[in-house]
Amino acid sequence: MGLLIKNGEIITASSRFVADIWCEDEKVTRIDKNLGAPAGAQVIDATGKYVFPGFIDPHTHIYLPFMGTYGKDDYESGTIAALCGGTTTIFDLAIMARDGEPQDALDLWHSKAEGIACCDYSFHMGVTRWDEDLADKLEKIAQSGVKSFKIFLGYKGALGVEDDELFNILKLAKKLNVLVTAHCENAAMIEQRQKELLAEGKTGPEWHEPSRPELVEVAGTRHFCDMAELTGARIYVVHLSCEGALRAAMEAKLRGVNVTIETLLVYLLLDKTYAERPNFEGAKYVMSPPLRDKRNQDILWAGIKNRLISTLGTDHAPFDTQQKKMGKDNFAQIPNGIPSVEDRVRLFYTQGVASGRVDLHTFVDLCSTQVAKTFGLFPRKGTVQVGADADLVVYDPAYRGTISASTHHMNIDYSAFEGREVIGRCDAVSVRGKVQVIDGEFVGKKGHGKFLAR
Ligand code: URP
Ligand code: ZN
Ligand code: ZN
Q: Nearest to residue 211, comparing CAs of 132, 253, 272, 279?
């Protein structure tokens, strides 16, 4: 049975036109006017609606062992939430323990996702140490289709790598032509600031940001770029939050460093005052790098508009209010993360496109096309064209709704965007031609999601 989407306005990163889309055997096979529906075909009327390529989240943590606990989503709840929000592919982090083996970690993440995930998925391989033995092991992993590594320059003593390790990982990545993504903060600065603040009795969530101020991220970003310059590796800065870090990356670009930049929905819409909310409410907004001074938001929007910033992720990291209490006497023990995998498309559409900050093409480019291009999935994913996977989002811009934990699909008891009004809804979402969402609700097949080797 094929799928026919009729009369929608198809929006890609570079074009817009009204046409019908015929999907068969998981692919888009025809785009034309007035296509007829063969007997048995599923037909969706998209008149007056947009048809976007499936959105791709470059940065999620669905299965997440972190800071002594586990994220609350699994591959069922996390990918259903992604789909209801219009995301048809996620990039999750499969991360080795510092004393563990990368292949074991990858096998574990595959076992968590396979047969359960409802949208397509790929992995970044989290590398947490270096020894010579790792070269062959990581080469094998890259050959299995995991063509991006992730390293942490924050989180000292846990996930973070030292400089000699960083150098060798980047050199290997250069040899293998693998993209290296990094969490950029200076770990030693954080450690010292945390000690200093805690010794002064400053223990609440409002002290998280002062413990990792903007210059900590600037130092981490600059350092990552410098090491890339030395080794010639291609790099990608994840969750960039502030002007200084953007400037550091741009300076590196001008020196010839091949650096791509991701920012997050939360940095565009939330600021550090959220983490200052009383009665430990602020803990819900603790993540790293932290939410920043509001003045950074205009700069990030400008960076998006001018495409200095290439991709928009969520860094979905779902810890509930109970788990956040692990840090009630010490902000450094609050599990870091803000859940938002379901919210990215609707809120970016609302605050970006509908408010006139960015155009529809920039929206598609940032949330889908550039992610596919950067991570080696284009044109299979990231656009609407004959031969591409039939990952399609029928979006109704006339719909008006409100974000709430009481209606979202993430397995988490709060929403960082509670009460925010949204313009539009994902009326229908298909993954490789299978309709997984109707009227914003999951109606599809569990386990339909596939691992994407790149
Ligand atoms: O606070 C965050 N960002 N939590 C998730 C882990 C990470 O650093 O990406
Ligand atoms: Zn991070
Ligand atoms: Zn992350």
A: 272
Distance CA 14, CA 306 (A): 15
The answer to whether 311 touches 370, Cβ cutoff 8 Å, is: yes
From residue 434, alpha-carbon distances to 84, 180, 444, 453 in Å are 14, 33, 8, 20
The bound ligand whose nearest atom lies closest to the alpha carbon of 338 is: 1
Instruction: Judge if pTM exceeds 0.85.
Output: yes
Handedness of CA 195, 200, 204, 205 (dihedral sign): negative
Contact present, 251 and 244 (Cβ < 8 Å): no
Q: Do 166 and 174 form a contact (C-beta atoms < 8 A)?
A: no
Domains defined for the chain, CATH in brackets: 53-374 (3.20.20.140)
* Residue to mutate, 150, 267, 287, ligand 1, most ligand atoms under 8 Å from C-beta: 287
Pocket of ligand 1 (CB under 6 A): 61, 183, 287-288, 315, 317, 336-337
pLDDT tens profile 129-145: 999 999 999 999 999 99
Q: What is the C-alpha to C-alpha distance for residues 258 and 223, in angstroms, rounded to an integer? A: 14
